[in-house]
Structure formats: C-alpha cells, structure tokens
Predict the structure of Bifunctional protein GlmU.
Amino acid sequence: MPVSGAVPPTSTLEGGPVSAVVILAAGEGKRMRSSRSKLLHEIAGRTMLSYAVDAATELQPEHVVVVVGHLREQVEAHLAEIAPHVTTVVQTEQRGTGHAVQVALAALPDLAGDVLVTYGDVPMLTSDTLVELVADHRGARTAVSVLTARVADPTGYGRIVRGAGDDVLAIVEERDASEAQRAIHEINSGIYVFDPQTLREGLAQLRPTNDQGELYLTDVVGLAREAGRTVSAFATRDAWQTEGVNDRVQLARMNAEVNRRILDGWMRAGVTVVDPASTWVHASVDLAEDVTLLPQTSLEGATSVAAGATVGPSTTLVDVEVGEGATVVRTHGSLAVVGAGATVGPYAYLRPGTVLGERGKIGTFVETKNAQIGARAKVPHLTYAGDVEIGEDANIGAGVIFANYDGVTKSRTSVGRASFVGSDSTLVAPVTVGDGAYVGAGSTLTGDVGAGELAVSRARQRNVPGWVARKRAGTKTAAAAEAASASSGAPDGGTPSPDPSGDDPVRLPEQTETVVPAPLSDQAVVPPGSDRPDTNERES
C-alpha cells in the first residue's frame, strides 16, 4: 500500500507540466560513514533516491535531471537500472547547490517553463506535494516558490521571514539569524519552483562569498527579492516530507515513520497487525483483507499474502507468495510459494525455488531448495529437501535427506504421488520413487523404486547377549541389566533376541573384545507377494 494517495493528473496543473525537475544527488554524505552512496541506503526496502525519482517522474515533466558527484558510479548504475529515462549530469567538484543547478541547466536546452529543484535524500516527499507546490506557484504568479514546514523545534534550519502580505522577505540561516528570527518555526526545505528567467539570471550572479566558498541556491532567492520579484512560500501540512537523511540515526527514524504509515494503511484496509512496533513491511509488499501479521514479522520485496493467511511470529519473508488461508510460523523464506491452506514451520527455511502445494506441509527444522511439493504432501520434520519433486499426498518421514550434490553436480530426485519415505532415509540423487511406493525407514537409496514397490536398504540388526555383563561390569547399566534378567528369569544377562536371518543367535567367545558389524546389504526391492519386512514406518 502506498504511503500517500493517488497522484493528481498532471493535466490539472494550469499551464501544463513543468519543464524540468532537477534532483540534487552529488553530496558526499560524510555523516553516513559508508562505502555506499548515502542515496542508495534504503527506506522500507527502496533506496532513498528511488523515492525522489518516482516523485519527480509522476509529474511527467519534460526533463528529469539527476546531478551526481560523489560515488557517482554507484548512483549512475542504480539509475540505469531503476530509471533509464532520467538524464544524469556530473558535478565533478561539489561547489554547492547553486553550482549543481548550473551544471544541470547546462545539459538542457533552453527552458520555457518552470523548473523544480529537489533532493535525492528526502524520501517522504510525494508527488502530491510537488503538484500542490507548483499549482500554488502558478496561482500566485511568483518568480520563486519555496516549500516550507512548521516544526516544533526548528534548530539547525533556515528560517522563513514573511512580510505583511505573506510574501517571503528572506530565508535566513540559523547562524545568521537574530533572536527574533530564531523564534520563527517555519523552516526552509530547500525545495523550490523557479521561473526559468529568474533562475538563469540568479545563477549567473552567484558568488562564493560565504565561509565554505560555495555557490548557494538560497542566494538566488535573495537576488530575486533584490530585483523586485515576488517570492512565495507553500507550507506543507506534513513536516516529514521536508526531512532529509544525513546519518544512520536519521535513517532509522525515517524508516520507522515510513513503516508506521505503511502499517496504518494496511490496518485500515483490513489487515490485523498484532504488534506494529515489531512488524516491518516494505512499501512493495501486497496484503489482502483478513491477513494477520503476528509479532516480529518482516515482509520484504515483492512478498504477497492472500486473504485469511497468518504470518508469524518471528518470520521473515522476502519475495514470497503466501496463499489464501495459509499459515507460516517462525520461518525464513525467500523466492518461494506457499499454497492455499498450507502450513509452514515452526523453524522452517524456504530457499529459492520452493513451491508448496495447496494444504501441503513443511514442518519443523525442514530446509527446502528448488523443491516442488505437491498438494497435501507432507514434509513434517528434520528434513533437507533440495532439488526434489514430491508428488501430491506423499509423506516424507522424519530425518530424511535428499542428497542432491556429489561435489560437482546437483541432481534431482522425484517422489511419486501418495508415496511414503520412511524416517532416517537418504535418497542419493538422481533417483525416482514411483507413485504409491514405500521406502523402508533407515534406507539409503541409490536406485529407482517402481510404482507400488517397497525398497529397503540397511544393515541387519545384531543383538550380542551378555555383552554388558562382560564389558561394563560394575556400572549402573550392568546393574539394571542384571535386575531385568533376574525379574524375567533369563540367565546370563538377558535373553538373546532372534537373529532376523533366522539363524541361531550370535554368541561371541568370552575373549573377543570387538564386534564386527555385518556388511550393509544392497538396496532390495521387495516384489509383490513377498513377506513384508519390518520397515519401522512412522506416520507423520
């Protein structure tokens, strides 16, 4: 949901579109203390510069010019990606805002219409406000109009000094202001609309007579007054729209305010946000009515959540599609799809390429990647499912590993419709399990399993009677075994269990100190009609 309402059509502006919008984006941003351009730091999942470019573009001006300078390679690359229609000009030396506008105009043809000047680090400034500013400028027929705001604490800002007729007499920087002027609460945003002739003449007269030796755009306003031209001010009702971001403290404050407005908008549209203080939603996220967001939830990128779904608590979704009525609990997911009525989590990790079908389940401590999981299929617990296709109604037992990588190549596994993979099994890709097949618990599959077949691949169990009494004499374990034997009447430390092979029980000689396990059997596919071995199935 957008932070602001719809943009009025440009045609509602008497006189048509502005000739140019100049966005100043050349500053160094030292206080950000970052190797990345200040303008590329994000608010609600979008760069600050992208907000400024979108607001300017929505006015449909003849030209949008972005003045770049510090770290311009980063800024230009970003602009080429998000706004190839803009013109970029380089201010090789940062000699002030007036100089930056001079550089911008030098790259444009002669302009007959108004010129709007704004900044790349004012992310909450909307096109609505810019339209209102231009309309007010044209209605008042002034040479210069400045966007202002009235704030409780104007410390650090230039003050707007108005005359008896409400025209602007001067813009006074705080260091130059008198006590009376410092008491003024109307501040200068630095955002202007200029008559093109006033702007050209003013820029030509600028001189670096200040402490910084720079050319200030503010001085053009003073020169217009000296020439007898009228300067007006348009005060926005939303002071946040004039706020810039110069350091990470201001970045955090701005993020919090934008997020608050996004959540307010969604709650008014029918979304339940249980704890707005711990819930973060990017501007690009789409939510339907009756969605519930539980505490400590973050929805980012192109994430969408359909009606009736519940997300959270403690969940982060990036570019994830959540279907109607689904539940996603304590989960991290990216570039994934969760079907209608499906359940995910807690403690699930959905990696890119995961698609969970309707009423499917991805459960506790399950990681998926490039996994297509069919409708009503279940992957309930302790499983890695990478590069796999699991058919509808299939059930994957606890602790199953889809071994997709041999150190060189990643291969896929397919589990058929309504099949069952027993707990603690490993499927070594590439392998196919047919429809309606079973895999015995503890199996390692290296070959295909046909439809309706049972595959078992594991070592035979061997029980060594008397081993505890001989090898762990004097321990609590030995005492427990002796007591159990006495109560059951079994001699010598317990009754030996029958060997699964049907042979006599295995008894080791007294002097033998090690037990050599039987070799692993090859994968066996039990044909129809054979006795069913103990598969230790666990319904999940």
Notes: Residues 482 and 540 are 37 Å apart (CA to CA). Residues 2-11, 493-520, 530-540 have pLDDT under 50 and may be disordered.
